[in-house]
Amino acid sequence: MIHPILAYLVAAGLFGLGCYGVLVRRNAVLLLMAVELMLNAVNLVLVTADTTVRAALPHTGQVFTLFVIVLAAAEIGVGLAVVLQLYRLRQSVAVDEVPLAEEEDRAPAEVR
Amino acid sequence: MNIGAADVLLVALGAVALGAGALVVGTRHVVRAGLWLVVTLGAVAGLYLVLTAELVAWVQVLLYVGAVVVLLLFAVMLTRAPIGASTDLDRTRWPGLLVGGGAGLGLVALLAYAYRWDRVRLPQPGRADGIGSEVFRSWVLPFEVLSVLLLAALVGAIVVSRPDIGESGGTGDPT
Q1: Could you state, in chain order, the average pLDDT of each consecutive group of 10 residues for chain B (175 residues)?
Q2: Which domains are present in chain B?
Q3: How distant is the Cα of B152 from the closest Cα of chain A, in angstroms?
Q4: Which residues contact A64 (CB under 8 A, 6 or more apart)?
Q5: Among the CATH numbers 1.10.287.3510, 1.10.10.10, 1.10.3720.10, 3.10.180.10, which is that of A4-90?
Q6: What is the ipTM of this complex?
Q7: Which of A1, A29, A73 is facing B63, going by the closest CB pair?
Q8: How far is A89 from chain B (nearest CA, A)?
Q9: For residues B1 and B10, what is the distance between their CA atoms, to the nearest angstrom?
Q10: Cβ distance B119 to A6 under 8 Å?
């Protein structure tokens, strides 16, 4: 016998912390860490709901959690590839220094 | 109002997860943020164990603590992050506090309204045989789509990180 609200509150707190980190951090790697916190909060909600709610299919929440973990691994792989490419171009991973507009004066060979 | 051992474990592991999570988003050392992330993910794996999700807990340890954190620490090293404390890791805090606190408190209010102080009996533990038969009985198509997505992410990461292949490289053929 457990009180599921305790696990849900932990998940809500982790999600809030992840939100804060994504908005506040300037380093792109730290930002990805905050994204991992949010993904973990979602996983915790799924697992807790799986133990709490009697569904027609058993263990659906845990299966979804496995799917989300795999998605997070794919996301972190691609995300870090992008971050390393950004570092190679700019010598910096500060996300608020990334120019969103296309720079006209750079030749493509120099960018690459 | 009777509190069982599982509740005590939930509260303790949850406190560890939340405290380490606050340090992940609050510390001034880039490397330490990655190490506190290990503590957070380990505590969440402990929460999964208390919630009887055995397989998910060990997959969490293998994939998150083992693989994702190692990748993140490699990225920290490859981007030459400063070793000591750095003061310019954060932007202005109030928008983050506003949105993060709003999201967290909103979820707390919603979940507290939905679940009150209910007690539930713990179900059958999610062992590997049960989860595996459920994956291959009910969720085969998402499983296969996910494997295609992993392959696509692998190829995408290689294409993004290699400078000699791509649209204007012209020398290599990405396929």
Answers
A1: 83 95 91 92 94 92 90 88 78 89 93 85 83 90 94 91 65 50
A2: 5-87+96-138 (1.20.120.1200), 139-175 (no CATH)
A3: 9
A4: A46
A5: 1.10.287.3510
A6: 0.87
A7: A73
A8: 11
A9: 16
A10: no
